[in-house]
Amino acid sequence: RQRIFSGMQPTDGSLHLGNYIGALSQWIALQDSYDALYCVVDLHALTVNPDPALLRERTRRTAAQYLAGGIDPERSVLFVQSHVAAHAELAWLLSCQTGFGEASRMTQFKDKSAKQGSDGTTVGLFTYPVLMAADILLYDAALVPVGEDQRQHLELTRDLAQRLNTRFGDGTAVVPEAHIVKAVAKIQDLQDPGAKMSKSSTGGKGVVWLLEDPKKAVKAIKSAVTDADESYGVRFDPVAKPGISNLLTIFSAVTGRDVDEIATEYDGRGYGYLKVDLADAVVAFLEPFQARANTYLADPAQLDKVLADGADRAREIAQPVLERLYERFGLLPAR
Ligand code: ATP
Ligand code: MG
Known about the structure:
The chain is mainly α. The chain is built from 13 helices and 5 strands.
């Protein structure tokens, strides 16, 4: 079976609906057909200098949300990035294969560093895509399910894998494919349909958090910015109607219903009806999700044990790959 790897950052106390629709729900769908590794990428979260106690708490909360969403630790390897030292070790090797100019072209770095200013921007934020490449290449992953915003980082990972194979010989690295499901790969901010829903978006009024009070989700949906289109038509058209199309995508994702079928049902009835019913559908999704997440969070010792077992399994896969790469790079074996 082919291997897949993916991860999310514990940058907030909760994941958002974009993380669930664009990534987590895809992970769940893939866990039966692949050898899957799903990781809470806490080393990535360090790039924005989080409070230590908060980071620890958020790492558990992120893992609990993976489980609540349906990641089964029997079928998939569920673990925390910092528990497997090889991620950081391989990142160093890859950083010495990445061009400075190449890394400077990453648009996510440009966006995030522009918001933080040059003193608030860490070198870690700059080398983040290199660590991400290490996460993937460390497991010889063939497929990486992510949202659209990760496409450029995945391209860099592929370039690096090909570069290693050219430089150090075939079989040095597996060149991974991105698994991006176009229809759901970019959930937009409800207040700003031109921008992606994001953990670090300022304000946060347009974000639906998976673990927040569902009443707030209802409010966010009802006050979602729609299009200044007089005709009130409800149809899926991301260019002319980005706000409505985003709501339709979310509606479809949480109910499993077809986008066009939903559009037809609400067309001509005004946006208010769509928002009210979407809010109900999102609450119906959030309530059982939160109940499950809270069960895992109520027993942190058990949760930590699941994560420790996952890390043991991850290390077993990672160690021989790291040794292969050390050897190919010409590092002298210790024994
Ligand atoms: P941050 O703003 O801190 O980068 P984020 O919301 O982008 O947070 P990540 O942890 O970076 O979250 O991403 C986790 C996964 O969720 C990735 O696969 C990413 O592509 C996906 N993802 C993030 N935002 C969206 C979105 N709005 N729509 C679809 N997928 C998304
Ligand atoms: Mg992100």
